[in-house]
């Protein structure tokens, strides 16, 4: 403030005075202002006088007087010396604001993925292509920039509570469905002018289309195999409806992210999967058994065939050889007791011949063997 | 004196404000998205940018419009497609099945003057259409079975509802573009639980069937394998049953009395045993 008061009179002094002498607009106004408002308080008189003094004989009177006057100026009519300056600045300020206004509202840089919709006084005029564009300034032409290429995604079903996701299928079952719709803008002006709430519209239409399509398919199709077909059908249907509204929206795709049985019955569905697994594993086991049996039978048959071939060539010898070989093998590893009592019934101290860890099965075999041997 | 007042900034500001106000109340920018009903003393006198079918943007009634300042008042009405959503309602079909239904209608105000006279504001149009949508839906669905909703016939139901709703909408200067059922669900509680129970039992039945079928096929595979093996054995062993008897017995002894077979074996042999024939030396 202080520096301004000091600077302005010094700088402006000649400038204001010259037009005043010539009757210029600013000087004129100065005079008016002086006459009208400065009269009683006389705030305008001191500065010119001071300037006069400062210029003419500033060094003449005491410098203290000068200082005091300036101080009085500052406090007494502080704001007033700015008046002429503010007045002269007005056109610049207005001009500057206008320039900024025009600059910001008539030059538009449209991105590669965007289109600009130009309205001339509210009426649609043209579409701006990507690049640098010029329009008339704001009140005349206004530009709405719309991103046409960006693919937006709306998630449906998955966000809401459980009951929101339940969808009735054609066979009156219920599935838990979560899906998303991807879309972008095909026609910028239709998008801007035709639909009141584009996003809500897509949501509602998609929900309706999805439920309508799912209502025509069976539970198993909805849960698995038919998903792609459902997605394609829903996409077509949404597009059809939105085209009917003239919305300018292009549906890029519908993706079913989740198609599950409802929570309440999911255990039963898991049990079906478990049953399928169990059935599959039973089949595997049966097949393994079959392989095993087949291999075994073929092996044994082949072995018998080979043995039989040799047996046929020399039946007696082969038979005896096999018998002795087997007996040798069998009896070499067992405890043997030979009872030689022709015509006498042998007394067998069974506990004595019985080894400590013997099973009843073996005992039975042994007694049979004994009987066989006895005969 | 005139020049003097004009140069006074306050006067200027006031004048500018008055001028702006005059311009503002004389001219109106009608955008593409809105229709304007001009009221003079509360009576509609003119309509700007009213909806016409198949008009191209840029050739509509939108643009700068003139009106009488202070006398004319403009009511703005949306020109775009709007939505009215029906709250969830329980609908009883002819087969006594209850369904929770919610639906929406898309409409556009095509006769702003009619709309202003009959409804006043846009909100009241939506408020008026909502219950009618509900009752039209109930009437139409009440004539049909619940299954209808799950079939392509659904489209016919919708166009019937659209027609009856449209009759009412015309009175409000609106046109129904589309009516859709968003959701048709079983109500919470007994019906929903019943459906769940049905699904659960169906799954249980399926699981049982799968298990039984698996067991049947497994058994069949085993039996076939056994039969096949028997055939192979018979073909081979049948060539000499007596030799087979001997051969198999030898195999069996080896296995039964093998040293590594479980349990310890004690053989009590009679001296008459065939194996010991040479043992006796005669």
Protein architecture, described:
The complex is a heterodimer of chains A (375) and B (282). In chain A, helix 1 crosses helix 2. Chain A contains 15 helices and 10 strands. In chain A, 61% of the residues lie in helices and 17% in strands. Mean pLDDT of chain A is 73; it is low at 1-40, 45-60, 76-81 and 357-375. Chain A has helices spanning 2-22, 25-36, 38-41, 46-57, 63-76, 82-106, 162-165, 188-194, 198-214, 219-225, 227-245, 266-313, 315-332, 350-353, 360-374; strands at 107-110, 114-120, 123-128, 131-134, 141-147, 152-156, 166-168, 174-185, 249-260, 335-339. Chain A has 4 domains: 2-80, no CATH class; 152-261, Band 7 domain (Tetrahydropterin Synthase, Chain A); 262-328; 335-374, no CATH class. Chain A is elongated, with a radius of gyration of 55 Å. Chain A has 375 residues and is an alpha+beta fold. Chain A starts with a helix and ends with a helix. In chain A, the strands form 3 sheets. In chain A, strands 6, 7, 8 and 9 form a 4-stranded antiparallel β-sheet that branches. Chain B is an alpha+beta fold and 282 residues long. Chain B has 3 domains: 2-78, no CATH class; 82-187, Band 7 domain (Tetrahydropterin Synthase, Chain A, 2-Layer Sandwich); 203-256. Chain B has helices at residues 2-7, 9-26, 112-118, 122-142, 154-171, 190-237, 241-256; strands spanning 27-30, 34-40, 43-48, 63-66, 72-78, 82-85, 89-92, 98-109, 174-185, 266-270. In chain B, the strands form 3 sheets. In chain B, strands 6, 7, 8 and 9 form a 4-stranded antiparallel β-sheet that branches. Chain B has a 3-stranded antiparallel β-sheet with strand order 3-2-5, with helices on one face. Chain B has a two-stranded antiparallel ribbon with strand order 1-4. In chain B, a hairpin with a 2-residue loop joins strand 2 (34-40) and strand 3 (43-48). In chain B, helix 4 (122-142) runs antiparallel to helix 5 (154-171). The longest helix of chain B is centred in the C-terminal third of the chain and has 48 residues, at 190-237. The radius of gyration of chain B is 47 Å and the shape is rod-shaped. The model of chain B has no long low-confidence stretch (mean pLDDT 83). Classes of the chains: A alpha+beta (375), B alpha+beta (282). The interface between A and B is large, with 119 and 103 residues.
């Amino acid at each position: 403030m202080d520096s301004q008061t000091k600077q302005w009179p010094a700088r402006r002094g000649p400038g204001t005075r010259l037009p005043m002498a010539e009757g210029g607009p600013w000087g004129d106004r100065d005079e008016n202002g002086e006459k009208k408002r400065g009269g009683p308080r006389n705030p305008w008189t001191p500065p010119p006088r001071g300037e006069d003094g400062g210029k003419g004989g500033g060094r003449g009177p005491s410098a203290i007087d000068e200082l005091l006057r300036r101080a009085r100026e500052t406090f007494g009519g502080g704001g007033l010396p700015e008046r002429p300056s503010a007045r002269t600045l007005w056109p610049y300020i207005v001009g500057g604001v206008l320039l900024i206004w025009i600059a910001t509202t008539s030059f538009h840089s449209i991105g590669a993925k965007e289109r600009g919709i130009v309205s001339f006084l509210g009426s649609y005029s043209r579409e701006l292509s990507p690049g640098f564009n010029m329009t008339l300034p704001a009140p005349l032409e206004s530009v709405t920039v719309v991103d046409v290429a960006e693919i937006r995604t709306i998630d449906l079903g998955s966000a809401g509570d459980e009951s929101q996701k339940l969808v009735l299928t054609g066979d009156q079952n219920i599935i838990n469905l979560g899906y998303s719709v991807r879309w972008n803008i095909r026609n910028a002006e239709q998008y801007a002018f035709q639909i009141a709430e584009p996003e809500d519209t897509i949501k509602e239409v998609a929900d309706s289309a999805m439920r309508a399509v799912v209502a025509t398919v069976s539970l198993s199709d909805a849960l698995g195999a038919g998903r792609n077909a459902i997605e394609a059908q829903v996409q077509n249907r949404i597009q059809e409806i939105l085209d009917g509204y003239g919305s300018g929206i292009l549906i890029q795709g519908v993706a079913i992210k989740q198609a599950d049985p409802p929570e309440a019955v999911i255990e039963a569905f898991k049990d079906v999967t478990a049953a399928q697994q169990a059935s599959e594993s039973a089949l595997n086991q049966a097949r393994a058994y079959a392989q095993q049996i087949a291999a075994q039978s073929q092996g044994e048959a082949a072995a018998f065939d080979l043995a039989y071939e040799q047996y046929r060539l020399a039946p007696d010898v082969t038979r005896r050889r096999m018998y002795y070989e087997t007996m040798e093998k069998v009896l070499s590893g067992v405890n043997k007791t030979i009872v030689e009592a022709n015509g006498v019934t042998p007394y067998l101290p069974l506990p004595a011949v019985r080894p400590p860890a013997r099973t009843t099965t073996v005992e039975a075999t042994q007694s049979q063997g004994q009987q066989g041997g006895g005969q | 004196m005139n020049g003097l007042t004009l140069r006074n900034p306050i006067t200027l500001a006031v004048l500018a404000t008055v001028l702006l106000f005059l311009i503002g109340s004389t001219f109106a920018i009608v955008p593409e998205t809105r229709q304007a009903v001009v009221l003079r003393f509360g009576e509609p006198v003119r309509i700007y940018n009213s909806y016409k079918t198949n008009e191209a943007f840029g050739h509509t009634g939108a643009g700068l419009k003139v009106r009488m300042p202070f006398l004319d008042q403009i009511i703005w009405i949306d020109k775009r497609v709007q939505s009215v959503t029906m709250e969830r309602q329980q609908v009883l079909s002819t087969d006594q099945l209850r369904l929770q239904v919610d639906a929406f209608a898309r409409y556009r105000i095509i006769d702003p003057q009619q709309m202003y006279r009959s409804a006043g504001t846009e909100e009241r149009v939506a408020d008026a259409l909502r219950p009618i949508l509900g009752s039209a839906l109930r009437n139409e669905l009440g004539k049909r079975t619940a299954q209808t909703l799950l079939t392509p016939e659904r489209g016919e139901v919708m166009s019937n509802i659209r027609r009856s709703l449209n009759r009412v909408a015309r009175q409000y200067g609106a046109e129904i573009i589309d009516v859709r059922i968003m959701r048709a669900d079983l109500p919470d509680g007994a019906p929903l639980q019943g459906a769940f129970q049905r699904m659960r039992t169906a799954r249980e039945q399926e699981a049982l069937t799968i298990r039984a079928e698996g067991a049947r096929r497994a058994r069949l595979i085993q039996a076939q394998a056994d039969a096949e093996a028997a055939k192979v054995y018979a073909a081979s062993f049948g060539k000499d049953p007596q030799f087979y008897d001997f051969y198999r017995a030898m195999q069996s002894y080896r296995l039964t009395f093998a040293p590594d077979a479980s349990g310890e074996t004690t053989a009590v042999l009679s001296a008459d045993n065939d194996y010991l024939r040479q043992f006796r030396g005669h």
